[in-house]
Specification:
- The protein has a single domain, classed as Fe-S cluster assembly (FSCA) (GMP Synthetase, Chain A, domain 3, 2-Layer Sandwich), CATH 3.30.300.
- About 40% of the residues lie in helices and about 20% in strands.
- It is built from three helices and five strands, in the order H-E-E-E-E-H-E-H.
- The strands form two sheets. A three-stranded mixed β-sheet has the order 3-4-5. A two-stranded antiparallel sheet has the order 1-2.
- Strand 4, helix 2 and strand 5 form a beta-alpha-beta unit.
- The longest helix has 20 residues.
- The radius of gyration is 14 Å and the shape is globular.
């Protein structure tokens, strides 16, 4: 396969591996993973392994949003080929503080 073709599919392959990894991050209240529950939005991957995504908890006052956000970011970081993760929490009462905390992880 020519390098240009391989390079074009690399972000898609990485995105698929990230999605598979996120299926292991489970909401303990429902027993369902964050992908099945559509908590991960706008997952984007660049050719150099930079990942951006949005996390929307099930409720604006979700009591486990902090732990889930941290687990999601760490799960993405563990995927081979990921060079940087920008995870943004949306539709959550404490999103400003949580987004600042996530930048430190």
């Amino acid at each position: 396969m020519p390098n240009s073709q391989k390079d074009k599919t690399a972000p898609d392959d990485l995105k698929a591996r990230i999605t598979d990894r996120l299926k292991a991050v489970v909401d303990p209240e429902t027993g369902m993973d964050v992908i099945t529950m559509n908590m991960i939005l706008d997952l984007e991957v660049t050719e150099d392994g930079r990942v951006s995504a949005k996390f929307r908890p099930t409720s604006p006052v979700c009591p486990i949003a902090v732990n889930l956000a941290i687990n999601i970011k760490k799960a993405i970081q563990e995927v081979a080929g990921v060079s940087h993760v920008d995870l943004t929490v949306i539709d959550y009462v404490g999103q400003k503080m949580l987004n600042e905390q996530l930048k430190l992880i």
